[in-house]
Amino acid sequence: MPIGTINNRDVLLAPSILSADFANLGRDANAAVAAGADWLQIDVMDGVFVPNISVGLPVVASLRKAVNTTLDCHLMIVQPERYVADFAKAGANHITVHAEATTHLHRTIQQIKQLGLTAGVALNPATPLGVLDEILPYIDLVLIMSVNPGFGGQEYIQTSTAKIARLRHLLDAHGYPDMHIQVDGGVSARNVAEIAAAGANNIVAGSAIFTPQRPAAEMIELMRAALREH
Ligand SMILES: O=C(CO)[C@H](O)[C@H](O)COP(=O)(O)O
Ligand SMILES: [Fe+2]
Question: Which residue numbers are catalytic?
């Protein structure tokens, strides 16, 4: 499944299954897709790069069988190059690795692309955009982390908005109109419009979509409505 084109700056929604009900993961994932989610993000945490452990290859393989959508694996693991082939085999369509997690970022990106997947680079909140300079020609997506990675349900770090705007400006200035800017962490219907206005086109949200109180479809519609109104 190819990465969506963003020439018209459509905003994609990528619910993170981190906040789904893991005992009913297929049900929750399908509900999000039926409600118009464009991608699903699977947050893979190793307890080393981030202080939490989440899910891994078997969950990707199970979701691949359960849902027909773009599976976006956000790898929060050290030396992700050890596992990218396994995630591709499990059914990932897109893999994002952290610039801070690998010494050989270019080689890791090459591996992902050679596997036929699209590739993204994630930056932690304190990582400057300058680390992207030499890797932009090789990637499809930049993930701006708007929380410190490791947990769902954290508060959006406000300075992320200016970082997104600087990145969109830089991409426009250097001729990357199709690069996705994905934003992950603390995004909800309350702030999604300002995040999209700053230049993000690919929105990850976990706790704002998968809540026990209301169906995912309603929460996705609230986000779409906020995007339409801005
Ligand atoms: O990468 C992540 C955490 O490291 C998650 O994708 C993200 O936190 C989603 O959760 P929420 O929308 O609740 O902040
Ligand atoms: Fe994530």
Answer: 43, 184
Q: Which ligand 1 atom sits nearest the alpha carbon of residue 187? A: 12
> What is the pLDDT at residue 230?
76
Judge whether 16 and 204 are in contact, CB under 8 Å. Answer: yes
Distance CA 138, CA 110 (A): 8
Hey, which CATH number is domain 14-229, 2.60.40.1120, 3.20.20.70, 3.40.50.1820, 3.40.630.90?
3.20.20.70
- Mutation test of ligand 1: which of 39, 204, 211, 220 has the most ligand atoms closer than 8 Å to its C-beta? 204
* Ligand 2 midpoint to CA 184 (Å): 6
- Give the tens place of pLDDT for each residue, 28-44: 999 999 999 999 999 99
pLDDT digits (tens, 9 = 90+) for 123-177: 999 999 999 999 999 999 999 999 999 999 999 999 999 999 999 999 999 999 9
Nearest to 145 by CA among 131, 125, 129: 125
Nearest atom of ligand 1 to the alpha carbon of 153 = 13
Do 165 and 199 touch, CB atoms closer than 8 A? yes
> ipTM of this predicted complex?
0.98
Q: Report d(CA 144, CA 183) in Å as an integer.
A: 5
Instruction: Tell me the domain boundaries of the chain.
Output: 14-229
Cα end-to-end distance, the chain, whole Å: 30
